[in-house]
Amino acid sequence: MDRNLQLPQQMVVLLNSFLTNREIAVRVGASISTRFTPEGGMPQGSALSPLLFLMYLSDIYCPPRGEGQVSQFADDLCYWASAKNAKYTAKKLKRCTTEMEGWANMQRVKLNPLKTQCVLFSRDPCKKDQMYLTLYGKTAQEDS
After folding, report:
1. Residue 80, φ and ψ in degrees, nearest 5
2. How far apart are CA 69 and CA 24, in angstroms?
3. 40 belongs to a structural domain
4. Statement to judge: residues 33 and 81 lie in one domain
5. How far is 25 from 135, CA to CA, in rounded Å?
6. Are 62 and 99 a contacting pair, CB within 8 Å?
7. Do residues 52 and 86 both lie within one domain?
8. What is the β-pairing status of strands 138-139 and 141-143?
9. How many domains does the chain have?
10. Is residue 62 domain-resident?
11. pLDDT digit string (tens) for 34-92?
12. Is the pLDDT of residue 144 over 60?
């Protein structure tokens, strides 16, 4: 939590106490699990958690100028790129995906390949075979 955010030391101490030494239990229907200490994550239901999550992702990987762009809404990310043809667009996005995997591994953030989608907007529908992306070795779903 001390990564270039320049927070006052008292705030760091407060946030550390909020995020560590917690115990939780999981309820499904009428059943409740035994209490355990989570290894990471944000307390669910807290008004502070969305802000802390955004702070945690403040240094998220951004593609170099001309390689693509990134947008974020809560915990959803969108990378996009454009080029004269699908082949070059795919190359740009593959580089972004590789860099994003590296960033996520360093930050201990788990990206979900099953929720990853690849969309190609093109005047030529035959170009879709040139556009596939992988995340952790799994091919992203193609969406039309």
Report:
1. -145, 155
2. 37
3. yes
4. no
5. 31
6. no
7. no
8. unpaired
9. 2
10. no
11. 999 887 777 888 888 888 888 877 778 777 787 888 888 877 888 888 888 888 888 88
12. no
**Per-residue tokens: 4:** 């270039």
Pair 88, 47 in one domain: no
Residue 109 CA from chain centroid, whole number: 7
Percent of the chain past pLDDT 90, that is, above it, reads 7
- Asked which of 30-44, 85-99, 113-127 is least confident by mean pLDDT, the reply is 113-127
Task: For residues 76 and 136, state if they share a domain.
Answer: yes
Residues 77 and 138 placed together within one structural domain of the fold: yes
Residues 75 and 128 in one domain: yes
- In this structure, are strands 141-143 and 117-119 parallel, antiparallel, or unpaired? parallel
Q: Are 120 and 132 in contact (CB under 8 A)?
A: no
Range of the structural domain that residue 101 is part of? 69-143
In-domain check, residue 1:
no
CA distance 14 to 99: 32
- Confidence band for 32, pLDDT divided at 50, 70 and 90: very high
On whether residue 3 sits in a domain, the answer given is no
Cα–Cα distance for residue pair 86/121, rounded to 1 Å = 9
Taking 90 as the threshold, does the pLDDT of residue 33 lie above it? yes
Mean pLDDT of the chain: 81
Q: Name which of 17, 35, 18 is nearest 26 in CA terms.
A: 35
